[in-house]
Each structure stands twice: as C-alpha cells, then as structure tokens.
C-alpha cells in the first residue's frame, strides 16, 4: 500500500511542464465555421447560369439570345462573397492560432484581440448575409410596386445554388456567434 | 479609468445608439411619395418592400433593447453584464444585417439593375428616395455605435468593473 502511494507521488512529480489544456470544443467549432463560410463563398462565387431565349421569329428561324446570370451582376452578392471570404480566412487563421498558440506567451493586448476579431468577422458575415438574403428574395418574388420582375422562374438553378450558399452562410453565422461568445467567456478578468 | 467615467461613457454610447435607432425607424416610417404617370398614381411607401419593413422592425427591437438596458444600468451583478454583452452582440448583428439589406435594395432602387431588367425608381419618386437615404444614414450610425458599446462592455467584463 505504502509503495503504491510512493509510486503515485513519483508520477505526479515527473518533469512534464504544465501545459494549458487545449480547448478542443472551440477548435472544432472554428473548423466547422471555416468549412461553412468557405463553402458559402465557393458556391456563390461559382454561381453562373446560361440560358437561351427566343426573342423573335423571322419566318421559320427563331432568333435566340443567350443571357447569363452571374453573381457579379449584383453588388449584394459581391459583398456576400467578399464578406464570407474574409470570415473564412479569419477562421483559418484562428484555427492556426489555437493549434500553435499555447507555445507562445500571451501578454498585453493579445488575449483581447481574439474576441474582438471574432466579433468583427461575425458582424461582417451577418451584414453580407442580410444583403444577399433580401436580394435573392427580390429575385424570387419580384416587386410589383416598383415594377421589378422576378427572375427565379427563368434561372432556376442559379437561384437554387444561391439559396444553398445562403443556408451555408446562416449556419456559419450561428457558429461564429457561439465561437465569439465562448472566446469572450474565456477572457479572465485581470486581477 | 475610474468607475464613474466607465459608467458615463457606457450611458452616453447607449443614449446615442437609442437616438440613432429611433431616428432611423421614424424617418423610414414617415417616408412616402406619389407620382402620376399617364393617369396612374404611383405611390411609394416603405411597406411596399419587405426589406424596409425588416429595417423598421430591427431598429425598433434595437431601440427598445437600448432603452431597457439604459434603465437597468444601476444594477451591478457581473453575471448580468456578461449576459448583456451577449445580447449586445446579437443586436449588433441584427442591426448590421438590416442596414446592409436595406442599402442593397436601395441601391437597386437608385441605380437599377440592367442585367435583371430592373429600372431605377428614384427618378419618379425623388422625395421617397431622399427620405429613405436619410433613414439609411441614421441606420448606418447605429451599428457602429453598437460595436463601440460591445467593445466597452468587453472592457468592463475584463477589468471586472461591472459596468
């Protein structure tokens, strides 16, 4: 009995330095947020649809016009792509900081910088989301008061892919909010 | 920074944010204009477009929240202030998404979108356009103020000053 206690004492005094515990919850959430924002960016950036329309018929030959729907046509979608791109870059950098972080000593402003940057990317991503949501709602339903026709009945797959990018971005926003709250919670008050 | 200075800065910021959100809401709600073209009356109101309705509702929620937090600034529990910090974040998100959406649709109204065949409407209803631009300016100031509010709440949570 006494020898076992001595062995236990020996193990606890072995020379391994005390490393701060890595928080795997927040790292996995950041990985998920990175995947969500990156997929939203990519799906919207590669969103393109060509369609041929018959404009008039001369005799028996129809004249077709090819119209393309691209995401660059709307400034709201450009902003959406840029905002989600920045948010995914931020998530990537934060994953790197979390994995390689505990080697470096955090003093001064650095511990506060992480929640502040998290908050900035959250706000940016939510702004991009809001603009793209209402722009695609306008495209889907049109606006009878302003005489703006809907475009989604003609460009279905463009609209569907935009919707998928939006859903990914909504998931990313929820994850970013949880990450921000957790990183604020990790801030300890200075004694 | 002494505690009273911290309290003063927080109260001033929240008062300004309350003013900005209320101003944005009121200016947007009172915007309307009508134009006549070929015997048809063409009225433009904020409620014609779901984006502007969302803008008014978001600003309304933010102003009510600002008012409530202003009224309970006297309370001193630190757990309450962490919760208020989280709510500040959510309201900042709400405000930025509402102003971004309203600005996107207002851009379509002002410049049109030639690719989608959407004509600008500001030529026919200039008073409505100016009114909406004013509301958007006030709505743009509000999330910036809220960012500063979140930063100041974070500072209070860190330095354990409770306010």
From TrEMBL, chain A:
Q: What's the protein's topology in the membrane?
A: Multi-pass membrane protein
Q: Which residues cross the membrane?
A: 24-46, 77-100, 112-135, 164-184
Q: Does the record's keyword annotation contain Cytoplasm? A: no
Q: Which residues form the signal peptide?
A: none
PANTHER family in UniProt? CASP-LIKE PROTEIN 1U1
Query: Quaternary form?
Result: Homodimer and heterodimers.
Q: Which family does it belong to?
A: Belongs to the Casparian strip membrane proteins (CASP) family.
Tell me what this protein is called.
CASP-like protein
From TrEMBL, chain B:
Report which superkingdom the organism of origin falls in.
Eukaryota
Its membrane topology, per UniProt? Multi-pass membrane protein
InterPro entries attached here? CASP/CASPL, CASP_dom, CASPL
| UniProtKB keywords | Cell membrane, Membrane, Transmembrane, Transmembrane helix
Please state every residue range assigned to the domain named Casparian strip membrane protein. Answer: 7-144
Localization per record = Cell membrane
Chain segments annotated as transmembrane: 7-31, 51-72, 84-108, 135-158
Q: Which residues form the signal peptide?
A: none
- Which Pfam families does this entry report, sorted A to Z? CASP_dom
Q: What NCBIfam families does UniProt report for this protein, alphabetically?
A: A_tha_TIGR01569
Concerning its family, UniProt says: Belongs to the Casparian strip membrane proteins (CASP) family.
Cited PANTHER family? CASP-LIKE PROTEIN 1U1 (PTHR36488:SF8)
How this chain assembles, per its entry, is: Homodimer and heterodimers.
Protein name per Swiss-Prot or TrEMBL: CASP-like protein
Tell me what organism the protein belongs to.
Stylosanthes scabra
């Amino acid at each position: 009995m006494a020898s076992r206690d001595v062995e236990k004492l020996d193990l606890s005094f072995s020379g391994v330095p005390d490393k701060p515990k890595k928080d795997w919850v927040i790292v996995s959430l950041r990985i998920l947020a990175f995947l969500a924002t990156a997929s939203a960016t990519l799906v919207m950036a590669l969103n393109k649809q060509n369609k041929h329309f018959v404009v008039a018929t001369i005799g028996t030959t129809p004249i077709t016009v090819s119209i393309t729907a691209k995401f660059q046509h709307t400034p709201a979608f450009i902003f959406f792509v840029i905002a989600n791109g920045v948010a995914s870059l931020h998530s990537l950098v934060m994953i790197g900081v979390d994995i390689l972080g505990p080697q470096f000593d955090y003093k001064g402003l650095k511990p506060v910088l992480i929640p502040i940057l998290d908050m900035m990317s959250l706000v940016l991503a939510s702004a991009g989301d809001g603009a793209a949501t209402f722009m695609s709602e306008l495209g889907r339903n049109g606006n009878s008061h302003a005489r703006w026709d809907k475009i989604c009945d003609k460009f279905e797959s463009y609209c569907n892919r935009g919707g998928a990018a939006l859903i990914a971005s909504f998931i990313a926003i929820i994850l970013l909010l949880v990450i921000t709250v957790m990183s604020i919670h990790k801030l300890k008050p200075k004694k | 920074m002494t505690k009273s200075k911290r309290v003063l800065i927080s109260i001033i910021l929240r008062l300004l944010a309350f003013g900005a959100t209320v101003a944005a809401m009121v200016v947007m709600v009172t915007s309307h204009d009508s134009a006549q073209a070929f015997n048809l009356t063409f009225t433009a109101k904020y409620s014609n477009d779901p984006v502007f309705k969302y803008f008014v509702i978001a600003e309304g929620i933010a102003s009510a929240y600002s008012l409530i937090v202003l009224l309970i600034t006297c309370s001193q529990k630190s757990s309450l202030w962490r919760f208020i910090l989280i709510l500040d974040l959510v309201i900042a998100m709400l405000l930025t998404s509402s102003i971004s959406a309203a600005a996107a649709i207002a851009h379509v109204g002002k410049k049109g979108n030639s690719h989608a065949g959407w004509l600008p409407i500001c030529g026919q209803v200039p008073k409505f356009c100016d009114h909406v631009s004013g509301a958007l300016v006030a709505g743009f100031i509000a999330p910036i103020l809220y960012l500063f509010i979140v930063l100041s709440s974070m500072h209070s949570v860190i330095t354990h000053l409770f306010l």
